[in-house]
Amino acid sequence: MATPSVRRSSNKSSLSKTSQTTNSLPLVTRRFAAWTTEITLVIVSGLVPFGIGAYINSRSDVSRVPLNPLLVVTERAIARPLALPASYGIRNVAGPTNYLWIIALLAPLTLSWWQLYLLAKTGSTIPKRRFGVRIVNEQGIAPGLAAVVIREGIGRWTVPMSVAYILWRYSFAFPNLGLFTFLAVLMVLGEGMALPSRQGRRALHDWLAGTYAIDSNRPLPTSSVASKGQSLPVRANEVDHQEEGNEQVAAPVMAIATEAPSLRSLWRRMRQNPSLTLFGVALTSMTAVLATLIATQVYIQTQQTQRESKQINSQKFLALVKQLSPNSGATNEERQSVILAMGGLNDPQSIQFLTDLLVNETNPILVDTIQQALTSIGTKTIPELKNKNQFLAGELASVGNNPQEKELRQKRLQINQQTINKILTVYSGKTESIDLSRSQLSQNGALGSSFFNLVLENVDLSGVNFKSANLNQASFKGSRFRGVGEDERLDTYDDAIADLSQTQMKQVNFTDANLSRVIMTGSDLSRATLNRANLSNARLVGANLSSTQLVSADLQNAVLENASLTGADLGDAKLNEANLYGARLGRVIAIGTQLSSANLTKTDWQGSDLSGADLERANLSNANLSATRLTGATLRSAKMENANLRNADLSLVDLRGANVAGADFQNTILTPARQDPADQFVQTPDLGSVSAVVKGVDFSKAKNLDAKQIAYICTQGGIHPNCP
Hints:
Blueprint: H1 17-23, H2 27-58, E1 64-66, H3 69-79, E2 92-94, H4 95-122, H5 126-130, E3 133-136, H6 145-169, H7 177-193, H8 204-209, E4 212-215, H9 263-272, H10 274-324, H11 332-345, H12 348-360, H13 364-377, H14 382-398, H15 403-426, E5 482-483, E6 496-497, H16 707-715
Antiparallel strand pairs: 1-2, 3-4, 5-6
Helix pairs in contact: 2-4, 4-6, 6-7, 10-11, 11-13, 12-13, 12-15, 13-15, 14-15
């Protein structure tokens, strides 16, 4: 009778001394070392290209392209379960970064599947083979792909991670990601090491897959039943025990695993107890039939009730329509009662009838009653009002030069706009999922007595979709465009965030409004008022903010790539760590503005006033700062490579630690000219108190420095080849 054994390489002489030393360690230790190596390889395969991509993305001399859609989808998929704020909207990154981050996404997946394939076909990955560990099934052979997927995918990762996620999700610390990381590591390590630490025990992932972790350098015990086709009992996790006093172990302890429950043993038990099996099948069948009958009856009853209710409402609706017909002879008071009764029906046909009646009614009293009825129905009327709004706006645009026709259509549109305005005001905070995209909600000029302005002040508009709508001259003072989602926490995946992308918002008043994380990509906010508004983490890529008031506004971490802020007032605004790559900021007033660590690469500040601004650690590479006033600004450790500083005033600027390689200093003022003694009207302070601080700054590679500037740099402790 042949003795079955585990298939392995016969070339044992090729093992190095290091391998022999490693294989002498306890099996549990080697298993953990092999698993750690596998995980490290997977993590490194993703971190290396991601890190290189992030480095390239931080450089200023590379072109920008939109983030790859695959990466956008992946980011959102990861953000949702981990309660992270997903970066919605368009984001521009360096061209090579897109490819490197895709590699960072695909490389770990590819490496993981390759390791699973090796484990399924050979019983070992490269790290497991290096540490002398092999995975086998009950027959002592490689487990196969199905068992490996169960072992690694379900047992090792899905179960412990799910337990950790549930504990974290419903704990007091949610959404603290640090706690989830701790719980996840604890559960994964506990599942893999707690049970195997005891003699004869297997980890959960091995138990689920019917596999065993064995020492590949030692033979398996033989079995006399192998020839009969039965499973071979194999050695489970092997642990070297150490006696007190550090006595050496004479022989390894081997545990014989008991046969795991399987479909074969279940079928054998069913055959041994046929009556019990028949009873179980009958009981299960009866329960299933009864549940199906009950569910069917409930469904039929529900459908019948809905049909009856719909029929009754239809009859009521027809009766009310007759009373509102011009030939009914009803008084205004009776018509008002009928309109309010129709609003109480709260069904699609009554909503459609009322919206049609709204724009055709000429009696102001009845118009007000119709608006009241639609408001009582609530936000369900918005889709129908939106459709009517777009139709009326199209009609108005197609009218020729006939003043009377234009006035009539203008009034109809304004009545529709007023109704939407009232509903949004009344249902403040219940606006999530409302779609008003491409709606016309601004005035189209005053014709006769026609006039409308959208006024939604101190209203909660979280989650409203205003994409591509016209909101010119609206007032949103103190309103909120972002709120908590189902988890009642801000800064998580389910935050209700309004969409204002591609929206017309000229001269809109957003004073004190909360626009944090709101999407305003490509929107027109020219001449808008955003004083003290919260725009932190907002997305304003390519937005038009020309001549906008942003005094004391919070724009921390906001994305304003390629935005236009020409002539804007940014006095005392917070733009710390904001991304203004390629933004146009000509003639901007930025007195006292906080721009520390901001990305200002390739920005154009020509003719702007940045007096007293905080630009510490800001990236001003290739920025145009010609003719700007930077008096008293802080530029410590700023990146100013190839910046254009021609005719700029750097009086009292702190440049310590700044990188000015390639910067153009032609006619740049580092210290003001001495005052003419004959001038008795204006007194300047001592020159030392208003001169730029350049101590330790290397001007060796700066451009167009004149003799006076070099002399000043040398006397103030700066570095230049011409310094004595």
